[in-house]
Design a protein that fits this description.
The protein is mostly helical and 271 residues long. It is 69% helix and 2% strand. The chain has a domain at 28-140 and 153-206: CDP-alcohol phosphotransferase transmembrane (TM) domain (Four Helix Bundle (Hemerythrin (Met), subunit A)). The mean pLDDT is 84.
Length: 271
Amino acid sequence: MKAPFPEFEPEEPDEAEASSGRLRDIPLRMLVPNLITLGAICSGLTAVRLAFDGRFEFAVVAIVFAAILDGLDGRMARLLESSTPFGEQMDSLADFVNFGVAPAMVLYLYVLNDLHTMGWIVALVFAICGCLRLARFNVMLEAPDRPKWQTNFFTGVPAPAGALLALLPVYLGLIGLEKSTSVALLSAMFMLFVAFLMVSNLPTWSGKQIGGRISRRIVLPLMIGVTLLVIFLFSYPWGFLTTLCVIYLATLPFSVREWNKRSEADTKSAE
């Protein structure tokens, strides 16, 4: 009798398995990153549902939670040595839902719908740019001839950062900014600006250097700093997220300068 579900094949079987027709069992650790990714998809889609209900505070929280899970699944896959092509493809599809569709819908339902068709077009452009950005990222991962230092940079603003940036008008509204036609127009312009940043060639720090070894002298200050950040996040979430967006945008020129400096060093060494 044929099984009701196909066998789960996260990666290509080796020649011995393929010739024998019997695939070995999959370790449970292989599923952990995929389950985290599924949790992120659920969080992103729930954000859309919450926005339809007018519960924008919780919608933002759901997208932030999806961004946290997105950062966890890749790290868990590397930690557990369970990275697979299946997981990479599912992660990319999840990012499109969570950081392309969800923020576009949330911002449209919050303020862009005041612009009617124009607001919907802006939401569509943002979602499409998110899709294009992720497709380009997947292709660039396969480029074998990139210098090693370039792995510390993304090309364009990454999708999770773009989603959190695009929601800046919602943060400001939750702080107390009144909605109006002018606010809707400015929100539309800002969302288009973020969409442009995602598909641009702007080099942005990837943060992959974070997580390496650190000096013993800064362990305690680092722990205190992280604790303070968590306190501010829970005490003043919308002000904290607004500040985070401003700081991130302010770092972009420094990221470009660092990229240009390293590129010039490569050019001189090649000569």
